[in-house]
Structures are given as structure tokens and as C-alpha cells.
Design brief:
single chain; 5 helices
Length: 151
């Protein structure tokens, strides 16, 4: 949860902050991307460490992370809504795809909650894979918004 809180604060600061120079913005975006990659890697490692006996804790932790990610999506959507019609038209399908991924991950969390000891490893691995792809998609969307839409 600590990792997601850090990500949320970084995203909020990025989304709301003052408009930096292009050089500063590129550096900040690259730093944020590196930080998100590291935190995603750490979160993925954390997922590996959960045993079947800890599945309830796993599900609760991942629900918290999903809630934070949904806040990130909402923040991106706010920025997009303030943009031009062309940017909105280009961005909305991308965000809808991310929302669809989030919905699929929530279903996988339900599967994890109902997993048996024999299915736990597979269910956890499927969630981990989907979560990684989702986080990559969020980062791509953040970068797109940063490139296409002024803060």
C-alpha cells in the first residue's frame, strides 16, 4: 500500500503542478517513469511472496492498489476533459481500454478471493501479469497526456 500511496502522490503532484520548462518536464516525466517501474517491480515481487494462507491479505492489498489506480485514471480524465475536442476524442478510447483492464483485474481479484490452494499460484500469476500490463498502460496514458495536453 505504501508503494501505491507514493505513486498517487507523485501523480497528483504531476497532474496538478505548475507547468515546468520542456527540459524539466522531460526530466520529471522520465524520473516518474523510472520510479513507477521500480515500484511496479517491487509490487510484483510482493505479490510473489503471498502464500495461499495469506490470500485474504493479498486481495485486500490489491484492492487498495486498484482503488489508487482508479484515482489516477480519474485524475487523467479530468485533465483530458479540460483539453481540446480532438484530444478528448483521441484519449477517451485509450482511457476506456484502461477502465476495461481495471474491470478485468477486479474480476481476477474476485477469482483470487475464491481461489483454492490448488489454483492459488495460477490465479496469483494471472493477476500479477494483468497488473503489470495495466500499470504499463497507465504510464503510457500519463505520458500521452503529458505530451499532448498542457497542464
Amino acid at each position: 500500500m505504501k508503494h501505491i500511496a507514493i505513486i498517487a502522490v507523485a501523480i497528483a503532484a504531476f497532474a496538478v503542478g505548475c507547468k515546468p520548462s520542456p527540459e524539466q518536464e522531460a526530466k520529471t516525466t522520465a524520473e516518474q517513469f523510472d520510479k513507477v517501474k521500480q515500484e511496479t517491480k517491487e509490487a510484483a515481487q510482493d505479490m510473489k511472496d503471498y502464500t495461499f494462507a495469506q490470500k485474504e491479505a493479498f486481495v485486500e492489498k490489491m484492492k487498495g492498489q486498484m482503488a489508487e489506480i482508479n484515482k489516477d485514471l480519474d485524475a487523467l480524465m479530468v485533465r483530458i476533459e479540460k483539453s481540446s475536442d480532438a484530444s478528448k476524442a483521441e484519449a477517451k478510447p485509450k482511457l476506456q481500454a484502461l477502465r476495461d483492464q481495471a474491470s478485468k483485474l477486479n474480476q481476477q481479484l474476485d477469482d483470487a478471493k475464491n481461489a483454492t490452494e490448488s489454483t492459488w499460484s495460477d490465479v496469483k500469476a494471472a493477476f500479477k501479469k494483468g497488473y503489470g500490463e495495466f500499470k504499463d498502460g497507465i504510464q503510457t496514458a500519463r505520458q500521452w497526456v503529458s505530451d499532448k495536453i498542457a497542464p
